[in-house]
Amino acid sequence: MSLRIALLGLLSAVGPASGYDLAKKFEHSLNHVWQAGHTQIYPELVKMAADGLVEAEAEGARGRKTYTITAEGKRELHEWLAEHDPSMTIRSEPALQAFLLPLLDDPDQAIKVVERIRARYLARLEQLDCLPAEGSFGRYALSLGRAQVRTGLAWAEETLADLRKRRTPQ
Amino acid sequence: MSLRIALLGLLSAVGPASGYDLAKKFEHSLNHVWQAGHTQIYPELVKMAADGLVEAEAEGARGRKTYTITAEGKRELHEWLAEHDPSMTIRSEPALQAFLLPLLDDPDQAIKVVERIRARYLARLEQLDCLPAEGSFGRYALSLGRAQVRTGLAWAEETLADLRKRRTPQ
DNA sequence: ATGTTCATGTAAGGCGTTACATGATTCA
DNA sequence: TGAATCATGTAACGCCTTACATGAACAT
């Protein structure tokens, strides 16, 4: 259901757009919040049009279809935002690897794992830092996303220090 | 694939266990890292047994089946931990709501949304604080999980302060 | 002419959620 | 006897990923 909401939110924020545009926006502005590729977005827009949440406008150059949010779509969006209790479901592969770390007897191996996690967080942080302020629309989510990644990075640094201390007790 | 890994990790850490046990462990120790209910776990264990990663032992009382990790299972687990580049895929409903906040013109409405997010993070933090040290097996993941939740909570507090300032400019 | 970007889709298969369904054991 | 807990599963449906497939327009 949240994919719909994300699409409605983008349409509401940036105005009419094609599936292609929305896929780009996803990558550049919602990336740290929700993920979806064009193969998920195109069919979903068709369903949303069938449900009256968006309207497909006349095709333009290169088969381009422009979608616009409807009043009904805006209503659904606002209702979700105002009423929906956000689920705390989490599936984090870095955290799963962190969970499994004690299985590695060799501290050097554990260090390698954490170094890889650290590199991933770092790359992600750089990616977020390059995001355009973008009319500052996504500012709240961006500050949350950045903080979360920085937290992951800090955890990695601390854990590395800890593991290195254990490796060389003296 | 990660569900398998999580199950192999638990079996490796706590020894032979039933699907029921594993579902409980999931809830009490992997909760902030990965989520899965018994309806996902039971069929997965059957598949894993077919793939030779675990062995189902004789049935006990009340139809209980005990699973043990095999050498092949341990190999897969260690390989994943050592080689797998963790995916950064994230789908966070709180963050999606944060993203959409600027759509609300009324600051009071925005405040309500953030207050609900804050309450959810707070509840989650209390839940984590009640977790048993549990032989401290999940210690690294727990510290990461706690830090992540605290970050979300801090974001909510800051955002509330910011929104309240905007509401009453004087 | 060739490569890149724009633009759209389908299909198969796996992962995840919710609802449904059953029955034994233990404790009050 | 009745309620709670232990213990297992199936089915339907929806969400997500990966791979496949097509073609127009534009820049070099």
From TrEMBL, chains A, B:
The positions making up the signal sequence are 1-19
Is Signal one of the keywords UniProt gives this record?
A: yes
Keywords attached to this Swiss-Prot or TrEMBL record, sorted alphabetically, are: Signal
> Which SUPFAM superfamilies does the record cross-reference, listed alphabetically?
Winged helix' DNA-binding domain
- Give every Transcription regulator PadR N-terminal domain span: 7-79
State if Cytoplasm is listed as a keyword. no
Check the record and name the Pfam families matching this protein. PadR
Query: What's the protein here called?
Result: Transcription regulator PadR N-terminal domain-containing protein
Source organism per entry reads [Actinomadura] parvosata subsp. kistnae
